[in-house]
Amino acid sequence: MEFVLKAVIAGSVVSFASWLAGRNPALAGFLVALPISTAILLPMVYADSGSFTQTIAVARSVALAVPITLLFFVPFVLAERLGLGFWLAYPLAFVCLAGGFMVHRALLNLLPGSGPV
């Protein structure tokens, strides 16, 4: 039941942002750029684990990941210049994101107190 509640909360946030995008794309983009999912996730991590140390580790990972995940948008930013259509830019975005994840893991291993990931 707890999982279902979490899924409903997270799904509601995504659904709201999707609905808002049709009415006010600028506001929807701004809201999605905020760490809304992190604001939902951190109390859930703390409630599940009871460990503030675990919560800090997740927050540290998110803080490092946010700028790296912007790599997802590189194919879209370059789409016109490179002559990419949506269905080519979209999978390339995930390739960029996978590369960013590898960088993220490497950087987390370098941070003091992070330990191996």
- The low-pLDDT segments are none
Mean pLDDT: 88
Largest sheet: none
What order do the helices and strands follow? HHHHHHH
Distance between the termini: 30 Å
Shape: flat
Structural class comes to mainly alpha
Proportion of residues in β-strands: under 5%
Report helical residue fraction.
over 70%
Report on this structure.
The chain is mainly alpha-helical and 117 residues long. The chain has helices at 2-23, 25-33, 36-49, 52-69, 74-77, 79-82, 86-110.
Secondary structure topology:
Elements (H helix, E strand, L loop, with lengths): L1 H22 L1 H9 L2 H14 L2 H18 L4 H4 L1 H4 L3 H25 L7
Helix pairs in contact: 1-2, 1-3, 3-4, 4-7
Q: What are the key terms here?
A:
117 residues, mainly alpha, flat, 0% strand
In short:
The protein has 117 residues and is mainly α. Helices cover 82% and strands 0% of the residues. Helix 4 crosses helix 7 (86-110).
